[in-house]
Automatic annotation (TrEMBL):
Documented EC number(s): 3.2.2.9
Organism: Thiomonas arsenitoxydans (strain DSM 22701 / CIP 110005 / 3As)
Keyword terms, alphabetized: Amino-acid biosynthesis, Glycosidase, Hydrolase, Methionine biosynthesis
Domain Nucleoside phosphorylase: 5-244
InterPro entries with a match to the protein in the record: MTA_SAH_Nsdase (IPR010049), Nucleoside_phosphorylase_d (IPR000845), Nucleoside_phosphorylase_sf (IPR035994)
Protein name as catalogued: adenosylhomocysteine nucleosidase
Pfam families hit by this protein: PNP_UDP_1
Amino acid sequence: MNAARFGIVSAIAQEQQGLLECLQQPRCVRHGSRDYTLGTLWGSEVVLVLCGIGKVAAAATTTSLIVEFGCDALLFTGVAGGLGDGVAVGDLVIADTLLQHDLDARPLYPQYEVPDTGLTHFAANRALTDRLHAAAQRLLSPQAEPLIDAQTRQAFGLHAPCVHRGLIVSGDRFISTRADSDALRHALPDALVVEMEGAAVAQVCRDYDVPFALVRTISDRADDTAHIDFGRFIHAVASQYSRALLSELWHAGLINEKADPGGR
Ligand code: ADE
């Protein structure tokens, strides 16, 4: 993917911190109540930003990255609650498609359909997603150096973290009861994870025909202990993951090769 300028959106400050530490010639621009940090990351021009929580915050930030800051590709890193069987805390999940689980304009439009698009599922860019997937697999391969120290791994039961790829669902709700996560699993059996921003980023990127990819680290299982697991995980783990993953993506040469821009 040989974009001229990548927007890198993080959901939480701890994730962005690791990337900020690697950024060269950083320059901060305040726009629309957010701080956008421009600079060079491993040889590529990037803009780093924290979008905040929820679909509106994510959509507004994505629009600014594209329209105001001229980003021509986007990467999103964040955490999510696991829904799918075998999607465990510490695993990485990469989006193939994204859907808004709380969008319901029935009877005017089918459930989950974004009015006037004819779409319920929004696709991530295939080429960029393939590269992110390859980087994630290398990072979590049994041969790779563990990202997290042994004590933290034990505390979270992170034995052999896996990489998954598939449907990610987004909505303006933190899912923190077993009843709510069961309801989501029942309504959307293919959903691997639930989070609060991704599908909004996907919709705006489609509007502007800008390629994007999204990766989530599982912080909780979207059940009754989700809020406790989420807080502990963010502190102990989140900052290591996104820096290591994006560094792998760039250093493996996966980002600068010419990519097939199909699948936007
Ligand atoms: N992000 C991380 N965990 C989540 C959850 N349980 N629900 C929604 N968004 C999340």
